[in-house]
Amino acid sequence: MKRSLLILFIIILSINAYGQKIIHKPDYIYGNVSGKVEKVELTEKETILHFHLKKPRGGWVYIPSETYIENSLTNEGRLYVIKGEEVGVGEKYYLSRTNEIIYKLYFPALGKDVKKINYGESNLKGNRFIYKLDVSKNGYRFKSDRWHNTREYISSKKKSSINNKDKQLREVKTVKTDGDIFPKDLPKDFFGNWYDKYGTLILITTPDYVVSDFRIRYYVDIQKIGNNKFKIETTANTFEILSLDNENMIIRTDKLTNLKRKPDTNVPEFIKGHWINKNGKGKLTVSENLFFFHKTPENILSNEKKYIDHVAVSKSDDAIWFILYDQGKFNMYIANKINGNYVLGPRGHMETQYKKIK
Known about the structure:
Elements: H1 2-18, E1 20-24, E2 30-31, E3 36-43, E4 46-54, E5 60-62, E6 68-71, E7 76-80, E8 83-85, E9 92-94, E10 100-108, E11 116-123, E12 126-134, H2 140-155, H3 162-173, E13 192-195, E14 201-205, E15 210-212, E16 215-217, E17 219-226, E18 229-234, E19 238-244, E20 248-252, E21 256-262, E22 273-277, E23 283-286, E24 290-293, E25 304-313, E26 319-326, E27 329-338, E28 341-346, E29 354-356
Antiparallel strand pairs: 1-3, 2-12, 3-4, 4-10, 5-9, 6-7, 6-11, 8-10, 11-12, 13-14, 13-21, 14-15, 15-16, 17-18, 18-19, 19-20, 20-21, 22-23, 22-29, 23-24, 24-25, 25-26, 26-27, 27-28, 28-29
Helix pairs in contact: 2-3
């Protein structure tokens, strides 16, 4: 009798396991949603997205009733949110006691052949979305965390015997089972500000993103094609590194380009200080580490901080690029010198430019 019950229990577990698939920290092409999708549960009856969101205490979260997911291959067959846990649908949730929250959104089940989805929600301040969220396999962040944690474990065992070190190194190599090359695995010489022979900024390269054509691109795929040679695919283009050292790099796109790396730059002193929006309705303070957007009657929510992740300066100092980070998102601000004075603003938004307060 006990044996029969055990067999039945195992069968039930197998059925449940077969009917459920869990994707950890899924990859995506682009998104402007506050927070991150940490996990996706796929069952025969429903699709569950797990979000992790950080915001200043006192902020709020709102999930519109028409929030949806859809097959990104066809952009058809929208499945609308059924319910939420921790954050209700159509209700404001205020972060009064903490600055972060983990919540779930439930949707109808996806088709078994769906590999990537789009997520969308419509808010008063504009639409928010995640484009091509991969629900077929664990994401780069999940594999990267495992790789990082394993390396941390190895570093804590440096006093082990030589035999044990060899064994541990073999264990490290087994972490990257599919031969992935992560951005952080690229040579350190690759990261920095790269200029052509005329002193024009061509690339900004970091482990998190690449800036080309003055737009932020994200890594999609990296392949090693030779000794210190790589093929890198981003969300906008693909280029090959044909030669690389700590000062020079040759890349191939539709042509060969010789680039020279210059040291990373700090925020210039003449940029630091107070700025006011051209329409007089917004104020901004730039310091060594962040952009601080001041609370105004037009911006009644709260003061806002965006941390400076990277700075690059043109050869003649007539343009300065700032890559800012805020809650998992990067965006670009540019200070352009016009008629002897700098004008600062987000790329492509002339209406939100700032001028320095003297």
